[in-house]
Amino acid sequence: MDERGIAAGWDLAPVLAAGGLDVDCLDEIARSLAPGLLDQALRWIGYALETEQLMTDIEDAGNRISSLVAAARQYSQLDRASYQWIDVHDGLNSTLVMLTHKIGDGIRVVKDFDRTLPRIPAHPGELNQVWTNLIDNAVHAMNGSGTLTLHTGRDADRVLVEIGDTGPGIPPELRRRVFEPFFTTKPVGEGTGLGLDIAYRVVVNRHGGDISVVPNPGDTRFQVRLPLSEPASH
Ligand SMILES: Nc1ncnc2c1ncn2[C@@H]1O[C@H](COP(=O)(O)OP(=O)(O)O)[C@@H](O)[C@H]1O
Ligand SMILES: [Mg+2]
């Protein structure tokens, strides 16, 4: 472009290159134009390419925003009935979206979902709190790198949701204590010790399910089992 006397070619070159215009292409354009028009023509092509790229960016951003909003609505359950028949995967997926930033890039997320699971009667907003607390603990245990596995499946007359991590596990002397209120091994200000207590109360007291832990180092799993049918007392 310098050879042909185009002003500020350095400014235009990246846009043209990104749009797939190479030197041969520019030669062809130069040949088909009256001398003196090349500068203006290239600038015009540059604007058109830039606008097109911006439109694509805006569309992508718009799609991302609307899927985030959908996840936030699903997560918060704001305008939904507090007790209903739910697909557990909806809550797990929206919780993952809400925690994307916290999970970070060093942690691989594996979804091992049984999509044939039936709906279950539940308080979905409260279950989202359970998934949040379990995923938060798993991510914390892995300290920035590892694999977070969300597994779902059928276990007799219950739905099993398992949150697994590749962290250090839980030493035998602490296993009985992790579900106690205010029990935490995290520094003051970081942990409240309430995450698993809340999870226990939501799962066991509110849903008639159970929660347990398989605390192996490198393969720690928190397992939640939820009944497929309504408890008689509900
Ligand atoms: N996935 C996990 N891996 C290892 N330890 C865990 C895991 N989840 C929970 N714990 C242990 O259980 C304790 C209690 O967890 P929780 O009730 O959520 O409180 P907090 O996260 O505020 O400490 C944690 O401090 C930690 O010692
Ligand atoms: Mg916690």
From TrEMBL:
EC number: 2.7.13.3
Domain Histidine kinase: 50-230
Presence of keyword Ion transport: no
Alphabetized UniProt keyword annotations: Kinase, Transferase, Two-component regulatory system
Xref: InterPro entries: HATPase_C_sf, HATPase_dom, His_kinase_dom, Sig_transdc_His_kin-like_C
Reactions catalysed according to its record: ATP + protein L-histidine = ADP + protein N-phospho-L-histidine
Transferase recorded as keyword: yes
Name of a matching Pfam family: HATPase_c
Domain of life the protein comes from: Bacteria
Alphabetical list of PANTHER family matching this protein: HISTIDINE KINASE, SENSOR HISTIDINE KINASE
Descriptive protein name: histidine kinase
Protein species of origin: Planosporangium thailandense
UniProt lineage: Bacteria, Bacillati, Actinomycetota, Actinomycetes, Micromonosporales
